[in-house]
Amino acid sequence: MTSRAVEANCDGLVGPTHSYVGLSPGNIASQTNAGEVSNPRAAVLEGLTKMRRLADWGVPQFVLPPHERPDIGFLRSIGFSGSDAKVLEEAWKTAPALASAACSASPMWAANAATVTPSADAADGRVHFTPANLLTNLHRSLEAPQTARSLRRLFPDERRFAVHDGLPAQPHFADEGAANHVRLCADHSDPGVNLFVWGREAWERWDGRYPARQTREAFEAVARRHGAARAVFARQGVAAINGGAFHNDVVCVGTRECLLFHERAFEDRAAMEADVRAAADGLFEPVFVEVQEADLPMEDLVKSYLFNSQLLVAPGEDRLVLLAPGETRDNPRAHAVAQGLASSNGPIGRVEYVDVRQSMRNGGGPACLRLRVVLTEAELAATNPRQRFGPDLHERLADWGRRRYRDRLAPRDLADPSLIVEGREALDELTGILGLGGDFYPFQRAA
Q1: Catalytic entry in 176, 217, 263, 327
Q2: Does residue 384 lie within any of the structural domains?
Q3: CATH number of the domain bearing residue 60
Q4: Which residues of 24-36 are buried (b: 16+ CB within 10 A; e: fewer)?
Q5: Active site (annotated) includes residue 18
């Protein structure tokens, strides 16, 4: 008999250096808002409010801590020396692009943290995680080692969890994590189909308008090392990538039997559907919900982030809930599509909206902020309880964020050496709140 399982969400906590520097080619929001002033305090509180909403619905919710930024260790590794303040000063003076990368708060987008295979689908019956190497963009390529450390603190029992290192940091294995992966199933407790969506092949010459960040070979390697059953590999639509859908979760979202996607999401939609149906044969009947370009043009899709919503199984409800960003509600075309989904007799019963505007201005909607992990009751019980989100933790983290985070941060402020001290003091307190130990961050291990 299959053990009862639920889909938990592990949300990335927004970091103190949340800023708009425009580091991500192909992410139109990131490029458009480059140079604007951000509000890290508002950003962390928005993220916490979203977590609380899901926890109040009865969805298991965990917190993933931000990474230490500025990443002084990275700057030292490329030749800067002296005190930490001197390293940051010299980097901004002589290599501002590298300094910007070292200050990025991008680990907040936990959908890129890793690819996850639940125990029901893994050959050895454990939950598997492969941290994404994210090597297409320098600022994100710094994340994988600390992400692995974070996942090992949240999922410490090696009898139940396997947290791998990232794939080789090499273009053939460019990996962007769960932002390009969807798991479909009859019930989260049952075996499912793992849909891996790739943008290019390793030896392919890519000449698209924007980078194709995920290789097929990377996902094939992840599936092998996880022992992932019923794997389907589908190519993301080239038109979608060139239109600003830098990850598949900008044009597609799915859970349980339902896959909701835009007309341009897949290069060969018919083949994708046939492969998913074949993999699901005998387990469940997939439900494909396609939104036409005529109803939601790519320009409106990218502005509204309708598909970068969270598609949720809410306890006690027969149909799914779509938690969309406020920008979907504010875009007439996207709002009409969303309301049409809810008013139909399809798998989505209602649409709700959430304000994550600070994240959205960098191209990260509700789905970007979370990593989905299917867990049995025994696996839930084996997680770090201090990272399980609820009213008490919400109150503590909101107080922490109000005290520790600035309410205004312009790109030029990232050169302020006092950010090093502010950030470390904030993160040192956070490790106590989340029970991460006194050696979690590099600065703690160097002390």
Answers
A1: 176
A2: yes
A3: 3.75.10.20
A4: bebbbbbbebeee
A5: no
